[in-house]
Amino acid sequence: MVTVHYRRWCPPQSPLRIEFPPELLHDVRLEGAQRQRRLPLRWIPRLNRVVTQSSGLLFGVRREAEVRVLTLRAAEGLEPVGTFVCRARGEVFLTDDDLANFEKHQAALALVVAGGQAGFFVREPDGSVQAIRSHEEFRVADAAPRPAPARIDPATELPSPAPPREWWRVRVPWKRIGACAVLLLVPAGAFAYFRPLLPHMPIALSIREEAGQLLIGWNASALSDVSRLEIQDGSERTILMLPPNASSTTYGRQGDDVEVRLSTDSRIGGAHWEAARFVTKAPRPATASSTLRERIRKLTIEVEELRRSLAYGQARTRELGVKLAAATREP
Asked: For residue 326, what is the enclosing H or E element?
């Protein structure tokens, strides 16, 4: 029994549903950090700085309109499903070279990570690719709140510090100090106005089994007024609208593969979501209904055998009657 955490990218305009583990984004950023500069970024004049990027292939599995991206490394049982591009900064889009690499490998998708933003690009039903903008961008910090141990140099993502100045030449910014003092006088109620600018709190969706039922939990502080929980259990789909203060619910599973997705609307538009899957290969104990169905199946087979035997006996009786009549007929 194992619980598999993953993220799902499935905007309404996309013909593909893409699943990926949170660690994939950190692996892409680590791959981009491998290219070391000859000089530190702060030593390079601003006019001579260029935004470097790294690219490569993504490996996973594909099933019809669903693609699961698992790793950046080739492995047994995995096939190349797309390409990735990682930039230290900039916008989320595909350049001409990125698009040429995408077409070269006949990829189904492309992942672009630019600074703290990311997005997928997919092939449309007519074969074209919308390279200017992703159907849905998302923050790397939201999709992967627990970064893997990394050796990313912070200087590659932050501007270089200004050169130190002598203390006697420093001019005191009285206007800025006055503006800060005014902001400190703003009442605490104004916090609700600035709240949309704060980063999303992680949903921290979790699933575990207790007494034959699934206990689904999450961070109640991450929910908004409009939140819903989708449970896909085989062919059955259940949707629950969650109150803002709810933190858990129970579900009696029917199958061995249960998929859960929790989405909540953000205050600045869009959706904040997280998904998890509960998978078990252990055989479930037979219930009364399953035992009864098995008994009915065996009785049905037995009835069919008796019918065939009866039909054979009737045919044999008619055949012997014909032979007896022919033997007793006078010459």
From this structure: helix 288-328
Q: pLDDT tens digits for 124-151?
A: 988 889 898 999 999 988 877 655 444 4
Report how far residue 180's alpha carbon sits from residue 114's, in angstroms, rounded to the nearest whole number. 32
pLDDT digits (tens, 9 = 90+) for 293-319: 888 988 888 888 888 888 888 888 888
Return the CATH number of the domain spanning residue range 2-160: 3.40.140
Contacts with 58 (C-beta within 8 Å, 6 or more apart), sequence order: 24, 69, 71, 72, 80, 81, 82, 83, 84, 107, 109, 111
Non-local (6+) Cβ contacts of 230 within 8 A are 237, 238, 239, 260, 261, 262, 263
Superfamily name and number for 200-279: Immunoglobulins (2.60.40.10)
pTM of the predicted model, to two decimals?
A: 0.46
CB contact set of 224 (below 8 Å; sequence gap of 6+): 244, 264, 265, 266, 267, 272
